[in-house]
Amino acid sequence: MSPIGFIQNELDLKLLVLYIMAHLAQPVTFPQLLELAMCDAGVDYFSLTQAVEHMVETGQLAREGERYSITEKGKRNSEICQSSLPYSVRMHCDENLVKVNDTLLKEAQVQSFVRDGEDGTCTLELQFCDSSSPLLNLSLLVSDRATALSMAQTFRQDPGGIYHAVIALLHPKQPSPAQEEAL
User: Does residue 173 or residue 80 have the better pLDDT?
Assistant: First the structure.
């Protein structure tokens, strides 16, 4: 016998979705939302799909491309109803939200785009931001798409290291007067 969750009906599921969406740092894909919503045994893929579609239709969630975000209407409803969601479910969601929010913030801070050129080359756009401003915005002409994608992957793995390497190349440390005397 499978465990019975606190989520028993469509309204409970919508309250859960509103709670999750109101506490996310950035818009999420459906698989990310599904992973967060599976914190309760009463949630399943098909019910969640229907609930999310209905919430988009009623203006509580917005969909842009592959990502979902909460609307002002959804935020108001979440504030009003979040106490109806069992405390244990909220706490489990909060634990999962910490991990997902870290990932979402990193995704927002580190971005790469590849644009194909007419001559077979590609332009690779690399962006690295902190919470309030861009740190690095770099465009590179690359000979082919495979190389551009490989370079984008390398950038996403260590954007801070690449940022510091660029700074070191552009502004090498000058020896201090005391160091010059020692030479």
Answer: 80
Name the 3-class secondary structure at 5. coil
CA distance 60 to 74: 4
Q: Give residues with Cβ within 8 angstroms of 113, minimum separation 6.
A: 124, 125, 152
Task: Give the Cα separation of 164 and 128 in Å (integer).
Answer: 12
User: In the chain, how long is the greatest CA-to-CA distance?
Assistant: 80
DSSP letters, 30-80, are HHHHHHHHTTSTT--HHHHHHHHHHHHHTTSEEEETTEEEE-HHHHHHHHH
Looking at the fold, whether 50 and 121 belong to one and the same domain comes out as: no
Strands 61-64 and 122-129: unpaired
Range of the domain at 160: 117-170
Do 164 and 126 share a structural domain?
yes
**132-169 pLDDT per residue, tens:** 788 899 999 999 999 999 999 999 889 989 999 998 88
pTM above 0.90, yes or no: no
pLDDT at res. 140: 94
- Bigger pLDDT: 155 or 92? 155
Q: What is the pLDDT of residue 40?
A: 66
Same domain, 163 and 98: no
* Listed residues 60, 88, 107: the one ending a domain: 107
The one-character DSSP state at 84 is G
